[in-house]
Amino acid sequence: MEFITTLVNGLSLGGIYAMIALGYTMVYGIAKMLNFAHGDIIMVGGYTILVFLAINPIVSIVAAVVMCVLLGVSIEKVAYKPLRGSSPLAVLITAIGMSYFLQSLAQIIFGTAPRYVIIAEFGSLELGALKIGHGTLITLAAAVCVMVLLNLFVKYTKIGRAMIAVSEDKDAARLMGIDINMIITLTFAIGSALAALAGLFSLMNVPTIMPTYGALPGIKAFTAAVIGGIGSIPGAMLGGILLGVVECICNSLPGVAPYTTAIEFAILIVILLVKPTGLLGKKRREKV
Amino acid sequence: MNRIIEKIKGITWKYYLNYIVIGVVAAVFSALTFAGALPQSTLYLLERMTISIILAVSLGLVVGFLGELSLGHAGFMCIGAYIGGKVSVLLADALGKGVVNLLISLLVGALIAAAAGFIVGLPALRLKGDYLAIVTLAFCEIVKSLFQNTSEESFGGPLGLRTPRFDKQYLFIIGFVLVLVTLAVIQNLLRSKHGRAITAIRDNEIAAHATGINVTKYKLVAFVISAAFAGVAGVLYSFANNNVQAAVFDYNYSIEILVMVVLGGMGNITGTIISAAVITYLNTTLTVVLTGNLAVLKDLIYALVLILIVVYNNAPALKNFREKYNPRKFLKALLKLTHPESKKYADDEGAWARVPTKIEMNEILSTDIVVNESTKNPDKADKGE
């Protein structure tokens, strides 16, 4: 019974990781860059919820999504767009700088001490010996919804298909009349909105927030995206869920628990060695 | 006699400038220390500076010259600090806390860090840029977590390993000597055939491979040397402190070293040394001045400076501006440092005396002219003029 609880918790945590990982993977697929500041957008979302929670929980969620979308898009315009076409190393370092910037800005505004954000009181579902928090179930359901909707959006709408086209061949897509700049902006917007949702759901499960709040989930979700094959949307979902389940199972075993982070990263290294492009990644051919 | 003078005249002093400046600085501070004119805090600052310089120069080999991003440099330093610290603890009874102990610890720490570099590098360097960054980052986290969960007798566990602080005041002099050793190894490596191979891999990996350079071997060589010197810096760290804690060597520390390399100019050793010294100085003094929430201002400024410098140096749109208002050109004109013959090449793009940078190389090697033109102004291309 305990194992089932752990598994459900793992799936729910995996759902959160998958949402963050989707942001990483979509941006990588389309802009061919690692957005290291993505984890910190989650943190900004969390603090926005904290600020607007006094008004109304629903208002705070909407505000968080809007804030994150605006932030994600403006980061792209200010920091990444001028570097388009230069070396990948430069873009990566700028992204790291952006992440550092957001963290220290949050520290200046809100201080380093953790703050409590209780969005709503949740009970828990009890079926015999099985006990699962409602927050966990809501997270799981929402994660499934988001993934299904995103898949439908990418596969069946005109803009979604334009996104796939851009990720496959930017120049050919431009010749087909696709506005590349608009697609990149849109990708950052969707990724940031997902990050805001991920922030919301992780606050439902663990209601404390601090300036480095997004760093570890960000790095782990990034790991998940790489495990699944960066650039692949189903890969990010698979990787996120895999990582979430592994984390919860490791945490439930007393002897293994301190090494959880090490095990997760070890899985990443092993998978990259066996399959250098990740589980569902496509092979890239080198062109001279 | 004349021969010797001729020989001295023939030396390209540019190559030795770093050694001379660092040697002079070390000599001045040593003299001041033995005269008793320096407070303890300055000595600590100098120790920290030497550690930073070794770290930054060794990371510069991988980031600036090999062109791969490593985000796990603090991990190698962590290995050096723990292993070297442990060795020094074990040897403290037999050899005391002096120079002999330090040398043996340095050797062991550097070797183990190099071995770790080899073990990580061998599989990881098969991966490309972004993937390598994440694997080194993962490695750093793994190392940190392993040392944090050791037992108290072995490596101190979460409380950290208690190490004997070096018992003399002049640890920083050894630090400076180690900086010179680092420079000697890395600069000479870069000026050799092997170093040329490493920079060739940075400029164009496929082209380097096609000319018969063993890409994996040279990547590994650069990576292992870089890891070994990070280990040296770690051992030095364990001797400069009473305690080694794994939590210090986190992702942010790796980033801090990276900031030093980037601000100094990637692929510029002198710049890296200067920026490492200045940043360490600012770090130490600002921590005293800025307290409480203001302490974060330092990080905020770092982040902004990092972004601005990278965007300024790399943005394709600013290329003309950079060439027009080049501070180095301005300085040279001011001091009239320009070589008399260089005027001949001033307007000649194909000047052989110049080594093309990576971006220029890409332009030269690119055959896809149509695409390049449309990327210059995508907005116009979209309207279909």
Short synopsis of the structure:
With 288 residues, chain A is mainly α.
Question: Would you kindly provide a written description of the structure presented here, covering whatever features stand out?
Answer:
The complex is a heterodimer of chains A (288) and B (385). With 288 residues, chain A is mostly helical. Chain A has one domain. Chain A has eleven helices and four strands, in the order H-H-H-H-E-E-E-H-H-H-H-E-H-H-H. In chain A, the strands form two sheets. Chain A has a two-stranded antiparallel sheet. Chain A has a two-stranded antiparallel ribbon with strand order 2-3. In chain A, strand 2 (124-127) and strand 3 form a beta hairpin. In chain A, helix 1 packs across helix 9 (215-228) and helix 5 crosses helix 6 (158-168). Chain A is globular and about 60 Å long. In chain A, 52% of the residues are buried. With 385 residues, chain B is mostly helical. Chain B has two domains: 21-314, ABC transporter involved in vitamin B12 uptake, BtuC; 318-383, no CATH class. Chain B contains 19 helices and two strands. Chain B has helices at residues 2-10, 13-34, 40-66, 73-95, 99-124, 129-148, 171-191, 193-203, 205-210, 215-240, 251-264, 269-289, 295-314, 319-324, 327-335, 342-345, 358-365, 369-376, 378-383, and strands spanning 161-162, 243-244. Chain B has a two-stranded antiparallel ribbon with strand order 1-2. Chain B starts with a helix and ends with a helix. The relative contact order of chain B is 0.14. The model of chain B is unreliable at 345-353, 369-374 and 380-385 (pLDDT under 50). At the A-B interface, helix 4, helix 9 and helix 11 of A face helix 6, helix 11, helix 13, helix 17 and helix 18 of B.
